[in-house]
Amino acid sequence: MGTMILKVLSLRDEADGIRAFELADPAGGELPAFTAGDHIDVHTGTGLVRQYSLCNGPLDRRAYVIAVKREPMSRGGSHWMHDHLRQGDLVTIGGPRNSFPLEGDAESALLIGAGIGLTPVLSMARTLAHTGRTYTLHCFSRSAAHTPFREELSAADKGGQIFLHEGLEIDRQKSLLRDILAEPGKRALYMCGPMPFMEQVEQIAALAGWPTGSIRSENFGAAETAKCGDRHIEVVLASSGRTIIVPADSSIARTLIEAGVNIEVSCEQGLCGSCLTRVLEGTPEHRDTFLTEAEKADGTLILPCVSRARTESLVLDR
Fold this sequence. Notes:
alpha/beta; 5-stranded parallel beta sheet; 3 domains; 6-stranded antiparallel beta sheet; 2Fe-2S_ferredoxin-type; 2 iron, 2 sulfur cluster binding; Elongation Factor Tu (Ef-tu), domain 3; 7 helices; Ubiquitin-like (UB roll); Rossmann fold; 20% helix
């Protein structure tokens, strides 16, 4: 799906440092359909493109609702959204598209969201409630002031069980997660949040016997793009046979672009999948959060904006 221009219908502060934006068709028409777990690309005034999950239900097509957390280390995306975007302004967006789909093969769903990671699972909760499927939603945050959509979550009768866990010490959080994940049953687990929280949930779920295929996740945070000890990589373009040397301190995607290669990039954080490229030879070292574990193990795809190579060279379908 291409880009479209939407109007900021409204904006409101949902929590400390988190602002919600309603984006609508300037002419008042219905927006393209979306599904739970979808995100949109927002083209900011800084030239950056950032991905934000839709948090309203898919039946609500009068607007796309996103929540944006002001990130202290932001390169400009979240700061621009908070400081410059106002009601009535026009903004270019791309999407919606989905890398975190809600599957329909489980009897019920366990939803876990931490901080701003609540946004996609909130859309899932709304979808499940509408379709009559049972769910339990656990929301973790630093405090009540940091819980987005708290007033709505606290309201009665949302079609499922909703629990707010605010300001927990780390040991209490681990203990609670062990209780929450104790009985996998025939449920599917959907979780979203910062990487350390996600790793904690995955470890506890594995010990509790959750099948790998029943766990779906989306990480809110940039992938690691550089590590101490990274070396240069030889990248061969299959279409021309051209070899390009990627320095240790540069991404494959950025180096290819600087060399005149046409490669689409958007987030440059390993989140959106825009730069997805087929690997014809060599073994990639995956550092993205877009590919599934099965796709990473297969080794035939790479997100060159963040991932590198385990072998000395890669032959890419470019």
